[in-house]
Amino acid sequence: MKTILLILFLVVIQGVYGQSTRAVIESPRCKEGSIYFNEKLEMSFSPGKTPFINTNNEEIISVKKTKDQMRANKRTFMVYVKAYNPLNYSFNSSSKVVVDSVNYRLNEAIGEMIKTFDAYKKSLPADPESSTGNEESANLIEGEETNEATGCPYDKDLNDGLSGVLNLLRKEQSRSKEYIEWSKKLISLPFLNDEETKKDLGQMESDLKNARKYYDELYFELDSIKKEILKKLDDDKNKIECTLSLEVWLTKANRIKGLIDDQKKYLNNFEQLLQKVQKEMDKWKLHGAPLMVNNIWFFSAETGVVSRDSSVVVNLKMTKHLTSIDEKGNIKQADPEEVASKSVQFMWYRAFIPEVSAGVYYSLQSQDSYSMADDGSGGGTIVQIGQRTFEGIAFSSMLNFYMNIQDSKVLPFWQVGLGLQKEMPLFMCGLGTRFGLKDRVFSLSCGISITAIKGLNSLNVGDAVKDESEIKSDLRYQFAGPKFYFGVQFHF
Questions:
Q1: Cα separations in angstroms, 395 against 109, 420, 425, 431
Q2: Does residue 31 sit within a domain?
């Protein structure tokens, strides 16, 4: 029985399953369980110490074990985003658990090899926006006169009451520009520091509360006067003497309410902006408390858990929609503009990255042939009649395990493989080196191979047999070798 294996040439026909070896090996390592993004969705693992870097729109992050996860079969990660002004930016994120493609394809490849090997198993041995109205309101207030001399006994009290409301409103009118400045300050708030920003927002909320009290008092005074007018209109004894006068006062009261409403819009606009900011900041607490990292304010956007069997895909999107307010108090917002969007797959970090490849090899192999020598009595003995030679090209399936060395142009690996030559399955195991990281990649490997060749199992040459079928039924696959092989892989 002879086995001659010439130089083995492997040509990669199909690279890796799902994620390329290069992409996984070049992927950033998440060592402390946290990753940080700025408003441009640039990434850093230590903001303030290392710069934010731009990454691919589809990125892989390898999650390494932390000190608290040394023996854990799951690893937790947190995605933090730099705090931003919600009046100028908006952020959306989502996540989903997916099957880990590396682990899935590895199991698939091993399964295929086992399936191929099972074809021989039976014969192997048994061993195992809002309107302004500001100028118009000012003119109405300045031109509004409440003294109506109609001879009605209620004129003086009503005139004094409405005049008091108007005087208060004139004082408040001077604060409209102040309210506009409040809005401008809120729009330009930098959101750099958690405590300072919350302090600023707290002061704004307090100012808003005090201003609203002022308007509440105006509405209360005006509403009391209107109720008094309506009450007197309902009184029969006033219907003849003061009906016309009271209706004039009611009209003036309604006009003054319109002036208050128009004047309050500046405060309403500020309140609207402040509520939007507070609503967005409440969302920042959904996945954990915000934190300061080297004097930079971040909030937790997503959290997830990876294992050897499952990865997590996190989608991030940042949109810019600048808000402004003009001198008349009108809120304007620019059309939304996408700043950046990322799809980040968080995977279990592996010291070795498997890659499946298919290829061809050339071999020259031979095995002993047996027959029965007739002894004249209907039976005979087993004799060796020569050798059968198998020569040619056959397909192989290789599984390489690359050492996960980041940014290295040379990657050591070990490999196992299964040759699919008819009647003689070939098993290979060796070591190799991969050269290059970009498009021009090739690998050299060498190792030993073992060939399964059919031979006699329980019978021997010279044993008596009844017929040829008894010899064939005794043939079993037996491992021959080991033999040396040399491999060359080209990655297209």
A1: 15, 5, 10, 20
A2: yes
Are the CB atoms for 298 and 291 separated by under 8 Å? yes
Q: Same domain for 254 and 302?
A: no
Looking at the structure of the chain, the number of domains it has is 3
Give the residue among 345, 346, 348, 355 at the shortest CA–CA distance from 403.
355
| Residue 223 sits in the same domain as residue 329 | no
pTM above 0.90, yes or no: no
H-assigned helices in 235-307: 236-239, 243-283
* CATH number of the domain bearing residue 230: 1.20.58
CA 352, 356, 359, 363 dihedral sign is: positive
User: Do 253 and 311 share a domain, yes or no?
Assistant: no
- Residue identified by tokens 């008596």 is 464
Given 242, 257, 282, which residue is the final one in a domain?
A: 282
Are residue 275 and residue 218 in the same domain, yes or no? Answer: yes
* Domain shared by 244 and 322, yes or no: no
**Are 299 and 234 found together in one domain?**
no
Q: List the chain pLDDT tens, one digit each, 492 residues.
A: 444 444 444 444 334 433 567 788 888 899 888 999 999 999 999 998 889 998 888 889 999 887 766 567 889 999 999 999 999 999 999 999 998 888 877 787 777 777 766 655 554 444 434 333 444 443 434 445 555 545 677 888 888 888 888 888 887 777 888 899 999 999 999 999 888 999 999 999 999 999 888 888 889 989 999 988 888 888 755 556 677 888 888 899 999 988 888 888 899 999 999 999 999 999 998 888 889 999 899 999 999 999 989 999 999 999 999 999 888 888 998 999 999 999 999 999 988 888 877 666 666 667 788 888 887 777 888 888 887 776 666 677 788 899 988 888 888 999 988 876 666 778 889 999 988 756 667 788 888 888 878 888 888 888 888 888 888 888 887 777 688 888 877 765
